[in-house]
Amino acid sequence: MGSNATIKALGDLKAGDVVKARNEKAEGWTFGKTKVEKTGAKGAIDWTDLDLGVYLLEETDSTGSDGKVYTAAAPSLIYLPTTNPKDQSSWIWEDDQKSAYAVWVYPKNSVNENKKTVKDANKQVGDTIEYTISASVPAVQKLDKELEENKGVERTYNLKDFALYDNLDEKLALANTESVKVYYGTDEDNPTGNTELASEGFTAKLYKGDGTNTPAGETEKGQKLVVALTDKGLDLVADAKKKAAGTKVFLVFTPTVKAAGITPNQAVVYKNTGDGKGTVDPQNPGENPPDKGQDTNIVVSGWGKIEITKTDGKNPILGTEEAKKAEFKVFGVTGGVYGKDEGAVIDYGEDNNKAIKVLDPKTNEMIDTFKTDEEGKLSIEGLHANNLADFKDVDPNASSLYTSYVLVETKAPDTYELNHAPIPFVINIKQVDAVKTETSWTKDENGNVTVHPDKKDLLKITLADLEKITAENSLNKQGDLVVTTDVVNIPVKPKLPMTGGAGVALFGFLGLAIIGGGVYAAKRNSKKA
Question: Which InterPro entries does the UniProt entry name for this protein (predicted)?
Answer without folding.
Answer: FM1-like (IPR048052), GramPos_pilinD1_N (IPR032364), Ig-like_fold (IPR013783)
